[in-house]
Amino acid sequence: MKIYERLNKIDRRIIYAILFVVVTLPLIFPSVLKVTPMTPVENLFTAVDKTTDDKALILDCSYAPQIKAEVEPMAIAVLRHAFKTRKKILVLSLYVEMIGLATRALNQVVEEFNSVAETYEDSIIYGRDYVFLGWQPPPIVPMLGMGESISNIYVVDYYGNQTDTLLMMQRIRNYNDISILVALSGSRIPISWVSYAQNRYGLQVGVGCTAVSGADFYPYYQTGQFTGLMVGMKGAAEYEELVEANHGVKGRRVASEAMLSLTYAHLIIMLFIVIGNIGFFLHRRKK
Amino acid sequence: MNISTDPWVWIASILSIAILSFLYKENPFFRAAEHIFLGVANGYLVTFYWHRILMPILFRPLFQQGDLLLIVPFIVGMLYLTRFIPRVSWLVRIPIAIYMGYWTGVLIPATIQAQIIKQVQGTILTAPNFQSWNAGTSGIAWSVIVFIGVLCTLSYFYFSREHKGVIGFTSRIGIVFVMIGFGAAFGYTVMARISLLIGKLQYLLGDWLGIIK
């Protein structure tokens, strides 16, 4: 068999095996890969950072298990940022199957902070520092309804407490009291937030999305409809970098740990694309 | 190495490997895992919708607390089931019409504003758009590229005239922009898929086998 024929007939399982090794080794033998935050991520970070004491931010954790690897690190990074800088935060999910992952991220970060807190003031307290609103179907109801009254839409929170009795909710009534909404999603939910909540109530929307959605979402960032944008695992790693560099928040940085694997995997795929094309052109020339 | 003793981690890991085994070839382990996933996902959703929507929002208020206004959505919702009775199956049109009417009213103005007017504004060559690139004076160049790209791409999708002359020229430029867009989307898709593989390997090597901390 000629070389160009071999190049065109590489067994896909060999490619998978090489990719598996290339991705796995940097995870087992990690080394630091410096991540440089890009402007869209910096803008999101700055918008969250600028949340004043009289306002809160909303974190919409509408990501499903199949995209957890990309989006959960974003949720954890934003929560760490909010808790470290004592921003009030409301957490919600627009779909029921995502509630479990939102609870998981929230519990993990609250536990991280409370395990090192020495006083009640240092601790992250439910109702004072954060509220988990849970899930209210269908998505358009909270999107529009929270512009009038958050407590009317989420009468009870995820844990069954009357929302308007919670300390934090005495001052947080509707979108006027919200600095920014950060929508973490693998679907077009962020665009729905823009279409309904931003158009009608002027809510600032920041986004964390999967890499697949990135190309679709950049036009909304360019027009200013998205205040900031984190795309894929790399976006999450950039936000992790900003949170650690600016606020000294220590903790496992899952997305940053994956950057070396991601880089090597991209290089190997680029190599395969080049090899495949060389094989294709050689084959065509021989014909 | 610190292997997990949590049975749920073991179940999740074994099922993950069963699914990944499809990369080698189709096999009974993959099919079993696929069927388990479908069954569990459907069961989870049905149970959750029953306990978190139908019971607290409809049945309990209507039948236990006497909120009679809810009889209207209850009847409208039940009309969906008339599809199974051929003699009255036409009644299904009522909930479908209500649903379509509602969503058309809600979607059209919001979509036009957010996805057409604002996006067109972002294409126009104005000072705020130049600044939106955060690139100093080269923001003008980026805005001009977007402006040309949008017009040329639109001309490529203009099929009412043959692509000759000016339209032929602009549509050829348009296809270059379209291809660059596809390339960007493909690149991002590769990144997304590799990220998911990394996430799964982090789980298998970390949470399950304890090889990575």
Please tell me about this protein's structure.
The complex is a heterodimer of chains A (287) and B (213). Chain A is α/β, with parallel strands linked by helices and 287 residues long. Chain A folds into 2 domains: 1-30 and 257-287; 34-252, Rossmann fold (3-Layer(aba) Sandwich), CATH 3.40.50. Chain A has helices at 3-8, 12-28, 39-49, 68-84, 99-116, 140-145, 150-153, 189-201, 211-222, 232-247, 254-257, 259-286; strands spanning 56-62, 88-93, 130-135, 178-185, 205-209, 226-231. In chain A, strands 3-2-1-4-5-6 form a 6-stranded parallel β-sheet, with helices on both faces. In chain A, helix 2 runs antiparallel to helix 12 and helix 4 (68-84) packs parallel to helix 10. The longest helix of chain A is centred in the C-terminal third of the chain and has 28 residues, at 259-286. Chain A is elongated and about 75 Å long. The mean pLDDT of chain A is 93. Chain B has 7 helices and no strands. Chain B is extended and about 65 Å long. The termini of chain B are close together. Chains A and B meet through helix 2, helix 4, helix 8, helix 9 and helix 10 of A and helix 2, helix 4 and helix 7 of B.
